[in-house]
Amino acid sequence: MAKVLYTNANLLDGTNPAQPGSSVTVEEGRIKAVSGPGASAGGSHEQVIDLQGRTLMPGMVMGHWHGAYANYGADGGSQAFSGVEQAFLALSNVQLALDCGYTTLISAGTHYNIDVELAQSIEAGHATGPRIISCSRNYMPAQDAASTMANEELCMTSGPDAFSEGARYDLDRGVQIIKIFASGGHGAPEGMQMTAEEIQAVVDTAREYGARVRAHVSGRQQILDCVHAGVAIIDHGDEADDECIEAYLENGTFVLPSAYVLLRAAELGGNTFGFRNDMQDFDQSCALLPRLVDAGVKLVPGDDFGVWQIPHGDYAKELVCYAEHANIEPLELIRWSTCYGGEMTGVGGLGTIETGNHADLLIVNADPSANIDALTRPDNIQAVIKGGDLVSGSLPEPLAAASAG
Ligand SMILES: [Zn+2]
Fold first, then answer.
1. CA 401 to CA 44: how far, in whole Å?
2. Could you tell me if the ipTM is greater than 0.95?
3. CB 47 within 8 A of CB 24
4. What is the CATH code for 4-59+351-403?
């Protein structure tokens, strides 16, 4: 693979403020060198691409992904689709995410083991798509014996042994993450909750396979139960207090507020899935976010895109929502989408532009650290590069082969 020099870049490395006039060298799918303004990139390169001040940033990571959803919950939505239809839908959605600048998706639940098999197809080169960290079907507590059920989309059960046995079904098929619903709230039925023993059983079983657990959880006590049990990813955590924040920090827990769906559900009404029709939950999340940021909690974006309230493709609107309603700085939102998201994958070398990392890069025709809204406009996403290869958009015209000296 050719050695490529991206020069004259407004570099957003995933951590630091923008550094105009930077250069990045890519070879064999990896970042070979990063040099700041005025420094020589050194060596010879087969291809030199002058970015003319465009932003070069890490490919983004979506931390909460449901590929098999489209218009979910509305008439004609994917809840009525067959497994095969859902698989085609998932392929189309991951390619849409790639076009939007997401080179890695961390799933938060799928059906028919689609994540694992789609990830394998992409890795084998049968389809173009982002990296996928796979997830299981949803695991929920059964309210009573009559509501116990298990199929390709859902495992609703009770008791530590039954949860553990259910989880093995997905783990044996290769999922990297098990998704549990530890409590209701944030769109899930109020009153629903898993016991601390059930949560622990799922975590212990996942660990046997080297897998992790993520939890949809809203209630304070269940948040603590999850973090203490070793749940790695807290989805939403709406009712977190100082004790929860302390537990997040002690355990290096990742937190996904996913609050954009709360805003849209309140604006659109209809109350599907148990989202509130008013702004109470959204306002609560917006009040919590700055506290989490100030404490140093690792937040990652990702929402229930594909439910009817928020269509796939609107991903960056979640970031704009946090900037506008919770006053989160654009640079901080970029860190969530790159550095923290990369860390949350559990795969080394993703999410920042550093020597040795995977060359998952985004060329943007604007500076999102000045205005996060820039990421919502498709024509700003000039090129998406995964493992050094152009996978979406087009590169600015390269200069002739040259020695950068
Ligand atoms: Zn979700």
1. 9
2. yes
3. no
4. 2.30.40.10
